[in-house]
Amino acid sequence: MNVISLVGARPQFIKEAVVNRVIRERSAWKHILVHSGQHYDFNMSGTFFDELGIPQPNYFLGVGSGSHAVQTADAMCKFEEVLIKEKPDMVMLYGDTNTTLAGALDAAKLHIPVAHIEAGPRTYNKLFPEEVNRVLTDHISDLLFACTELNVENLRKEGITEGVYNAGDVMYDLYLKMLPKLDLVKEMRRYGLSEDEYILATIHRDFNTDNAERFTAILKGLNTISKVKGLQILYPMHPRARKKAAEFGLNGLLENLITTEPLGYIELMSLLQNAKYVVTDSGGFQRETYWAQKRSLLIMPQGWQEITDTGWHLLENDPQNMDWVEKTEVLESSMDYPGKIFGDGFAAQKIVDTILKTFN
Ligand code: UD1
User: Fold this and answer.
1) Is residue 189 located within the same domain as residue 326?
2) Same domain for 248 and 142?
3) Domain of residue 308, residue span
4) Looking at the domain assignment, is residue 263 inside a domain?
5) Distance CA 153, CA 151 (A)
6) Which of 35, 204, 238, 313 is catalytic?
7) Catalytic status, residue 204
8) Does the Cβ of 280 fall within 6 Å of ligand 1?
9) What is the pLDDT of the chain when averaged over all its residues?
């Protein structure tokens, strides 16, 4: 059996790492890895292959940045050529990026079955490009691996019931596997930080960074909580955020923050362990934050409802008008950890088992 995995953006390398390892350990099938090139800077891509031990991709499509149409169409044209040449029995796709959608459309039109990992999250808000990508991908997938029961339920509401499995979250598998490799003290020292005396912020989504007023309010908010609470702010910056801050003349608001290039997986997970709390707009990092039992302020219209419904993470979508200090006080109040939500750490095993069973 011959399976192609298509990845292209940072969170997909993390998800592929754990599934790829299980496939290799079990010699499950001939696995061909294709990198679309949606993310291409070393610290957005290469570093994850190195530190997570992902084999080098068999194909690199060099798609790069561009409008949604340009990026998706370019990935489609180039990935179609690989599918025609390799004739795989199945295509594996992760998450909800433009790379995911491109792969799903290509495979479906060539009548190649699609396995979608992280199927079923919904925001019901088409302003997110990711929502469009994941809804369309789910509707043309044959095997749908959800992370939670709520995701299974979301699929059922759209009439998708066949081939749906609640496998748990492959990112949780990886998180558990990598915990022993974290070096908490080394990473804090690198940035002159002390335990419980810093906030880890990752703000990179287009709805926050590409709107000058919103991005200004977020950076002002981070400065305010730093000053009032006497906490340092560590902000690893996605290249998009870095470019937009410069374009909008906001570099002055970065002066009192500790900004870095995007961090590798081990660096970021190490720094997460001793942070007081987190401010983020990332779908993946809010889950990792939850597993580290840290609370978070989510600056976005919707987060993972499984977490926000418990009150552990606070959802706030009005950075201009919200009281930042008051919100952090809620995060500092005591609360019992709600417990496991994203499976048992064996999602990748279940996914590989299910694919093998389907083909045998
Ligand atoms: C993409 C995903 C998003 C995911 C994020 C993870 C889509 C629609 N969005 O968003 O769901 O959370 O990846 O990071 O697919 N850039 C560089 N170097 C790089 C990559 C990007 O400089 O290696 C800059 C470019 O200016 C580019 C911008 O970042 O235009 C945005 O990159 P893009 O891949 O289009 O979207 P992300 O915001 O990264």
Assistant:
1) yes
2) no
3) 183-332
4) yes
5) 5
6) 204
7) yes
8) no
9) 97
Instruction: Give me 119's structure tokens.
Output: 């199927």
Per-residue model confidence (pLDDT) at position 168: 98
**According to the model, what pLDDT value does residue 360 have?**
80
Give the residues across from 280 on adjacent strands: 202, 298
CA dist 288 to 93, 126, 173, 178, Å? 21, 25, 11, 12
Number of domains in the chain: 2
pLDDT at 359: 86
> Is the pTM for the entire model greater than 0.70?
yes
- Are 112 and 193 in a shared domain? no
Q: Is 90 exceeded by the pLDDT of residue 301?
A: yes
pLDDT digits (tens, 9 = 90+) for 122-166: 999 998 999 999 999 999 999 999 999 999 999 999 999 999 999
* Domain assignment present for 337: no
Ligand 1 atom closest to residue 95's alpha carbon, by position in its atom list? 11
Return the best residue to mutate from 44, 68, 76, 97 for the ligand 1 pocket (most ligand atoms within 8 A of CB).
97
Residues 193 and 164 in one domain: no
Q: Are 218 and 225 in contact (CB under 8 A)?
A: no
